[in-house]
Write a structure and sequence with these properties.
Elements: E1 5-7, E2 10-12, E3 16-18, H1 27-36, E4 40-42, E5 58-63, E6 66-72, H2 81-94, E7 99-104, H3 112-124, E8 128-132, H4 146-149, H5 152-164, E9 172-176, H6 183-192, E10 198-200, E11 204-206, E12 210-211, E13 216-217, E14 228-231, H7 236-248, E15 254-257, H8 263-272, E16 276-279, H9 281-286, H10 290-304, E17 333-337, H11 347-355, E18 360-363, E19 366-369, H12 379-383, E20 389-393
Length: 399
C-alpha cells in the first residue's frame, strides 16, 4: 500500500505529522520522532517574548485507567527563536525528506514579529509556516492565540502581512480555533487574504474540574488553576465538525488535528478530505512509536475496502454530510436482538425505559422489543455492551 500523499504540492511519506506541542519541544525529540517514522513535525510555537511555564500543568479525565480527555495549561516554546532556526537547519540536513513546519505567534496589531519569525523559519529551511491563531490559554488574555482566531479581521490582516512580504515564499497555514460560532467565517477571511491552506483545530477552552477528595482544582498550581486546552479522544467529534465546515467553505486545502488517537480516527478525517493529520496528545500518552500502530491501523482500514492509496478514499465521505432538513424523515429502523449474543444484562431495557420510549421489556431474563412502541432512536444499540443489537431498516410492510 502507498501511504504517501501530497499537501500543497509538498510530498509527505505518510499522512502523520506531529502537532506543535510538548512532543516537538526540542531538536532531539523531533529527530527521534523522525527516526520512528513520522512524516513531519510542527515545531513548538515560536514567540519573541520570554516564556515561563507553571509546574503541574496537565490534567486528565479518566475512565478507570483510560484517559478519555486531557487538558494542558502549557505555553509556547521556552527556547529562543534563534536557537530554533539553527535546529531547523540541523533537522533538514539530517532528514531532508521529512517535512518541517514552523509555528509562530505574534501580536494582533504589529506585523514585525510575525514577519521576523516567518522569515527566520523559511531561511532555516522550514517547508511551511503555521500561524498559531488558536492557543486557548495564557495568550488570549494578552490579545494573542485564540483571541486572534476569533476575530476575522485580525486573522485576515496577519495573513495579508505575510503574503505581501517578499521574503516569505513558502506556504502560509493559519491554525484556527473551534471556539467560534462559525469557523467557516474565519476560514473565508484567511482564504481571501491569501492563505495557502488551513489547519484545524487546536485544543478547546476547558476547565477540567476538581478533585473531590482534596477540593483542589485540576490542574492545581499551588491551589489554583485556570482555563486550559482540552484534547484527547473526546475532542474528535468537534474537530470533525470543524473539518467538514472548512472543507465545504472556504474549500482551500485543510490539515486536520484534534482528538486523533489512532489510524482509524485519521481515516475519518481523510474521508472528509484532509490529506494530512496532526497528532499530539496520543503521542504524549503512548510515545513516538505509536506511529507504527497507526500505520498498521490505516493499512487495515484500507484493506477492508481494497484501497491502494490515500488518494483512493480522500474526500469520499463529505457527500454523506447533509443539513438536518435534507435528512430522510421516511427512513425507519427497529432493533433486532441476537439471543445468542445477548447476556441478559438489562442495559437496553433500563435505558429504553428511563431515557427512551419504553419499547423494551424483559421476558424470561432477555429483552424483547415492542416494534409498535419503538421509535427507532437507537439508544438500546448504543448502550449494549456485547454487540447483540442491530438496527435494521423496516420494510414498508412493517411500518
Amino acid at each position: 500500500m502507498n501511504f504517501s500523499i501530497q499537501y500543497l504540492s509538498i510530498e509527505f511519506e505518510n499522512p502523520f505529522v506531529l502537532a506543535s506541542g510538548p512532543p516537538t519541544a526540542t531538536y532531539d525529540m523531533i529527530a527521534r520522532a523522525f527516526e520512528a517514522g513520522w512524516a513531519g513535525a510542527v515545531i513548538k510555537t515560536l514567540i519573541k517574548e520570554p516564556v515561563k511555564n507553571v509546574q503541574n500543568r496537565f490534567a486528565s479525565n479518566k475512565f478507570g485507567s483510560y484517559i478519555l480527555s486531557f487538558e494542558n495549561i502549557e505555553l509556547l516554546s521556552e527556547r529562543r527563536p534563534e536557537e530554533w532556526f539553527k535546529d531547523i537547519m540541523r533537522l533538514k540536513k539530517q532528514f531532508p525528506h521529512k517535512i518541517i513546519i514552523g509555528s509562530i505567534m505574534g501580536d494582533a496589531k504589529d506585523d514585525s514579529h510575525w514577519k521576523e519569525l516567518a522569515i527566520g523559519c523559511e531561511q532555516a529551511g522550514a517547508d511551511m509556516i503555521e500561524l498559531n491563531f488558536s492557543c486557548p490559554h495564557g495568550y488570549p488574555e494578552k490579545g494573542k492565540g485564540s483571541a486572534i482566531g476569533q476575530n476575522a479581521e485580525y486573522s485576515r490582516q496577519i495573513v495579508e502581512w505575510l503574503k505581501r512580504c517578499t521574503l516569505v515564499r513558502i506556504p502560509i497555514i493559519p491554525k484556527l480555533t473551534a471556539a467560534v460560532s462559525d469557523i467557516s467565517h474565519i476560514g473565508e477571511a484567511v482564504a481571501e487574504a491569501g492563505a495557502d491552506g488551513i489547519c484545524a483545530i487546536n485544543t478547546y477552552p476547558s476547565l477540567m474540574g476538581f478533585d473531590l477528595k482534596t477540593l483542589m482544582p485540576k490542574a492545581s498550581v499551588n491551589g489554583y488553576t485556570t482555563a486550559g486546552g482540552y484534547s484527547g479522544a473526546g475532542l474528535k467529534p468537534i474537530a470533525l465538525r470543524c473539518m467538514k465546515d472548512l472543507i465545504t467553505r472556504p474549500g482551500i486545502p485543510v490539515m486536520a488535528g484534534g482528538g486523533i488517537s489512532n489510524g482509524f480516527d485519521a481515516a475519518e478525517f481523510m474521508l472528509l478530505g484532509a490529506p494530512i493529520v496532526q497528532i499530539c496528545t496520543a503521542v504524549m500518552l503512548q510515545g513516538y512509536d505509536h506511529i507504527k500502530t497507526m500505520l498498521k491501523e490505516m493499512q487495515e482500514f484500507m484493506s477492508w475496502h481494497d484501497l491502494n492509496s490515500i488518494d483512493d478514499f480522500l474526500g469520499l465521505g463529505i457527500s454523506r454530510i447533509r443539513t438536518y432538513g435534507e435528512l430522510d424523515l421516511s427512513y425507519s429502523v427497529v432493533p433486532t436482538i441476537n439471543r445468542d449474543s445477548c447476556t441478559g444484562c438489562g442495559r437496553c431495557f433500563l435505558s429504553c425505559r428511563d431515557g427512551g420510549y419504553q419499547a423494551i421489556r424483559m421476558k424470561e431474563g432477555f429483552p424483547v422489543v415492542n416494534d409498535k412502541k419503538c421509535s427507532g432512536c437507537s439508544l438500546c444499540f448504543q448502550v449494549c455492551p456485547c454487540g447483540a443489537i442491530v438496527m435494521q431498516e423496516r420494510t414498508i410492510y412493517d411500518r
